[in-house]
Amino acid sequence: MSPEYARYGHFSEKLDVFSFGVLLLEIVSGKRNAAFYRFEHSPTLAGWAWELWTEGRGMEVIDASVRETCPPDEALKCIHVGFLCVQEAPADRPTMASVIRMLQSNEATSLPPSKEPAFSTNRNSIPVVGSSQLPAVFSNNGVTISLPEGR
């Protein structure tokens, strides 16, 4: 889910670009973004992949089954394009037409640099059910019944 939709309910074509980026990362990594926080220390798949990418360990993002069937440079290009799609600001994301051109291109070096993806740190995260970060009281019901009546 894109940041602008999660926070404000805003729809745009860039929302689809964000979702496509998540899908690219899921396919290449063999991991699902949903419930990712249960298995890794990063809050999202993009955050985990970004951490490895910036440490020069991008090959570790690629699932073994993808390594067997896809050239490494193609898989790394998909990861890079995925990062471009999951940028925090919609204006920083490419259009779908640009995404298609990037994926069809034979030159991975021509891709623009990527910034840190949205939701890659806990700075904007929502507490997870069962988390010690949750407030002790979820709501305070101030309604009272002053004249109870029998049936």
TrEMBL record:
<protein>
    <recommendedName>
        <fullName>Serine-threonine/tyrosine-protein kinase catalytic domain-containing protein</fullName>
    </recommendedName>
</protein>
<dbReference type="InterPro" id="IPR001245">
    <property type="entry name" value="Ser-Thr/Tyr_kinase_cat_dom"/>
</dbReference>
<dbReference type="Pfam" id="PF07714">
    <property type="entry name" value="PK_Tyr_Ser-Thr"/>
</dbReference>
<feature type="domain" description="Serine-threonine/tyrosine-protein kinase catalytic">
    <location>
        <begin position="1"/>
        <end position="103"/>
    </location>
</feature>
<dbReference type="GO" id="GO:0004672">
    <property type="term" value="F:protein kinase activity"/>
</dbReference>
<dbReference type="InterPro" id="IPR011009">
    <property type="entry name" value="Kinase-like_dom_sf"/>
</dbReference>
